[in-house]
Amino acid sequence: MPEFSLAEHPHRRYNPLTKQWILVSPHRTKRPWLGQVETAPVERRPTYDPMCYLCPGNERAGGVRNPPYRGTFVFDNDFAALLPGVPAGEYRHGDLLWARAEPGLCRVVCFSPDHSLTLAAMEIGDVRRVVDVWTEQYAEIGARPEIGYVQIFENKGAIMGSSNPHPHGQIWASASVPQEPAVEGAAQAEYLARHGRCLLCDYLAVEADARERIICENEGFVALVPFWATWPFEAMILGRRHAASLLDLTDDERTALADILKRLTTRYDNLFQVSFPYTMGIHQQPTDGAPYPAWHLHLHAYPPLLRSATVKKFMVGYEMLANPQRDLTPEAAAARLAALSEERQV
Ligand code: H2U
Ligand code: ZN
Predict the structure, then answer these.
(1) What band does 197 get if pLDDT is binned at 50, 70 and 90?
(2) Which residues are the active-site residues?
(3) Which of 8, 29, 249, 325 is within CB 3.0–4.6 Å of 23 for a Cys-Cys bond?
(4) How far apart are the CA of 211 and the centre of ligand 1, in A?
(5) Alpha-carbon distances, residue 278 vs 162, 235, 249, 269, 307 (angstroms)
(6) Ligand 2 center to residue 49 CA distance, Å?
């Protein structure tokens, strides 16, 4: 029998943040691809779209008109999934039916007045202003006594469900800590209790040593394909220093975060020569007032594209019934992303 190889043999990988497993089938990337291969036309957008509900001066669905903003612009989501002032209440039938009222709020953050831009195409200084707005929003919303967690994210591209190509992201804040950050928070706390060190500080040290999955890096942050990545070109942005939230970043680190965001998203666009769709978000310390020494700020980017601008990964079959699976190894994905230019080619 040949020796076990991560690059050759089917195996499972463990995600220490979520305690879930992923099936990796590297031998399958050798199978022939008989599906259609298409190239998507590169979409060119105007800098202003009179029909866009996020462009400066335009009217939104609820009838409110946007101000003639020149930088970033934040407003309360007109169709908010979470609402403030929900009456406290619980519905319970033993251990079987259980529901609880969930107050919160939702906001939309326009990254730029320019309808044609994306984070990748924006100037670093303008991306830095987005980081500043995220930080201010996290501080302001998180300070509210009824808010326990602030989720900042961006859905980019129609296939990710984004309703509008205007550069924007969302903030959903809730009373309780939602599932994903709760699981990651518990895993980080458990690791700290067991090892006396931070899970993601230790993980970053392992990756810095292995240098097999790093995409790009700067003084403050490292972008890498995690060992346990589920999506083909999934990435994680990790702070080099143990910061629990955006509030703990220094001025230089905020600029470094803007820099790594622009560089990673530019590489994404260059990969298949298309404005690359993804869901990206910031995971950070809850704002419920409890101490969180184990929380290490990080970002996840989950892009669905698989092998071209039109071939998308779906989580179906085995993945819905058993566990997620991938063919391309995280090492191969990282090597492809690391080899790309940081000059915009799209
Ligand atoms: P997405 O593109 O990620 O769906 O974000 C756009 C958000 O903007 C979405 O949550 C909100 C939608 O509810 N929205 C408004 O608040 N006002 C509008 O006039 C249209 C869309
Ligand atoms: Zn617009």
Answers:
(1) very high
(2) 168
(3) 325
(4) 40
(5) 10, 10, 25, 11, 15
(6) 5
Task: Give the single-character DSSP code of 164.
Answer: -
**Residue listed under structure tokens 């319970």:** 92
Assign 100 to helix, strand or coil. Answer: strand
- For residue 122, what are its two tokens? 């924006």
Asked whether 112 lines ligand 1 (CB < 6 A), one says no
The structural domains of the chain, with segments of one domain joined by +, span 42-338
Looking at the CA of residue 78, tell me the nearest atom of ligand 1.
16
Q: Is 137 in contact with 171 (CB distance < 8 Å)?
A: yes
Q: What's the CATH number for 42-338? A: 3.30.428.10
| pLDDT tens for each residue of 252-311 | 999 999 999 999 999 999 999 999 999 999 999 999 999 999 999 999 999 999 999 888
Q: What are 201's two structure tokens?
A: 């500080």
Nearest-CA residue for atom 17 of ligand 1 = 78
Is it the case that residue 93 has pLDDT exceeding 50? Answer: yes
pLDDT of res. 44? 84
pTM tops 0.90: yes
Ligand 1 contact, 66 CB (< 6 A): no
Which residues have a Cβ under 8 Å from the Cβ of 84 and sit 6 or more positions away? Answer: 103, 104, 105, 146
User: 236 is written with which tokens?
Assistant: 């994680």
Q: Which of 127, 224, 217 is nearest to 169 (CA)?
A: 127
Dist CA 28 CA 40 (whole Å):
25
pLDDT of residue 29: 72
What separation, in Å, do the N-terminal and C-terminal C-alpha atoms of the chain show? 46
E strands in 117-213: 149-156, 168-174
Spatial contact of 272 and 308, defined as CB atoms under 8 Å apart: yes
